[in-house]
Specification:
Blueprint (H helix, E strand, L loop, with lengths): L5 H8 L17 H7 L4 H19 L5 E6 L6 H18 L3 E6 L26 H18 L2 E5 L5 H5 L5 E4 L7 H9 L4 E4 L7 H11 L3 E5 L5 E5 L7 E4 L10 H13 L6 E4 L12 H13 L5 E7 L29 H21 L1
Parallel strand pairs: 1-2, 1-10, 2-3, 3-4, 4-5, 5-8, 8-9, 9-10
Antiparallel strand pairs: 6-7
Bound molecules: erythose-4-phosphate (E4P) and phosphoenolpyruvate (PEP).
EC number: 2.5.1.54
InterPro entries: Aldolase_TIM, DAHP1/KDSA, DAHP_synth_1
GO molecular function: 3-deoxy-7-phosphoheptulonate synthase activity; identical protein binding
């Protein structure tokens, strides 16, 4: 029997069956096109290679430094991001014997309900959603920060983004809201840098432990290739997946007992005891002023012999606090977060220098 033409089938249905809730499609440059416009440079490539090696060695226990991922909750102003990078770089040499600094450069924000979803999604913060520009400018900023000599950490949220930006990232987080998502576990299994899975927003560890296990495996899933072609991707599995404790469910989980319980859970699951503590979010009950205390507590645990805490994360900006995104964008305050409240640079520098001194004392006395 002759098959009816596709359009005939659609007409006979009397109404459209697809794209019912879609208002439009706009073309997006392919990863290859964006990379041609903002190509990888030798200096950036060398820095990423160095960054990833340092992170892997620290996670393996071959390098006794502490990973410190510090930077704004979200990037909205590339100029301020470079200003922050310069400040972090200016203390990097001083603390480098005990701390490996990674700048937190978060372009994609997972929202609890709704809100601005980050620089790639809406770079002008005016609902114009120029993602082609957002992606290109994000890549240019990552190139610059790497060329300056700072390693970069980011959240892997949109499964397409790593094809555009992945070669410039030394450390990834999968966020609390997506740790249970199969899509994100599959993506993590193929990412080229170590990946930290946050515990869920409920504070429970099972989700992130399952996520680490899943990401160690090889997976087949759908994605895009560099040329934009929809593809079946086969991954190898990510041997450097690890746990990030961020608190949740109304309580922190950075204290000695919580860390010991997390170590036990990792051991029970047959996983390496590698933990990064996010000093913000549920661990500071979203009060940025508490972040230095969380950091101090982690440093004390390390000084007292803990070996599972491999790193910490700070939400830090040039100036403290946060601000709503104003309708008149000229009213935006420079260097202040437009998402979660951050500690300011002076507080960050003081906390990092203090952490360095304590870690150095331990090293000299060991
Ligand atoms: O770190 C950022 C926020 O905690 C996360 O994106 C959730 O933000 P929201 O609860 O303001 O949506
Ligand atoms: C969203 C973030 O964290 P979490 O997933 O822990 O809420 C973040 O670090 O920006």
């Amino acid at each position: 029997m002759k098959q009816p033409e596709l359009n005939e089938v659609k007409r006979s249905a009397g109404f459209s069956l697809e794209d019912v809730n879609i208002e439009g499609f706009s073309p997006m440059p392919t990863p290859a096109e964006i990379k041609t416009t903002a190509p990888l440079t030798e200096a950036a490539a060398a820095n990423v290679a160095k960054g990833r090696t340092a992170v892997k060695n620290i996670l393996d226990g071959q390098d006794d430094r502490l990973i410190v991922i510090t930077g704004p909750c979200s990037i909205h102003d590339p100029k301020a991001a470079l200003d922050y990078a310069e400040r972090l770089l200016s203390i990097s040499d001083h603390i480098s014997e005990t701390i490996f600094p990674i700048m937190r450069v978060y372009f994609e924000k997972p929202r609890t309900v709704a809100g601005w979803k980050g620089f790639i999604n809406d770079p002008h913060m005016d609902n114009s959603f120029n993602m082609a520009e957002g992606m290109l400018e994000a890549r240019k900023l990552l190139l610059k920060i790497n060329e300056m000599g700072l390693a970069v950490g980011t959240e892997a949220l949109d499964p397409f983004s790593p094809q555009y930006l992945g070669e410039l990232i030394s450390w990834y987080a999968i966020g609390a809201r997506t740790t249970e998502s199969q899509t994100h576990r599959e993506m993590a299994s193929g990412l080229s840098a170590p990946v930290g899975f946050k515990n869920g927003t409920d504070g429970l560890l099972a989700t992130s432990i399952n996520a680490i296990k899943a990401s160690l495996h090889s997976h087949y899933f759908l994605g895009i290739y560099e040329n934009g072609q929809s593809s079946i991707i086969k991954t190898k599995g990510n041997a450097y997946s690890h746990l990030v404790l961020r608190g949740g469910g109304g309580r922190p989980n950075f204290d000695t007992v919580s860390i010991m319980l997390a170590e036990k859970e990792l051991e029970k699951a047959g996983l390496e005891k590698r933990i990064i503590v996010d000093c913000s979010h549920g661990n500071s009950m979203k009060n940025p002023a508490l972040q230095p205390f969380v950091l101090k507590d982690c440093i004390t645990q390390i000084v007292n012999g803990n070996t599972s805490i491999c790193g910490v994360m700070l939400e830090s900006n040039i100036h403290e606090g946060n601000q709503p995104i104003p309708e008149d964008l000229s009213q935006l305050k420079y260097g202040v977060s437009v998402t979660d409240a951050c500690i300011d640079w002076e507080t960050t520098e003081h906390a990092l220098r203090q952490a360095h001194r304590k870690l150095l004392d331990k090293k000299l006395n060991d």
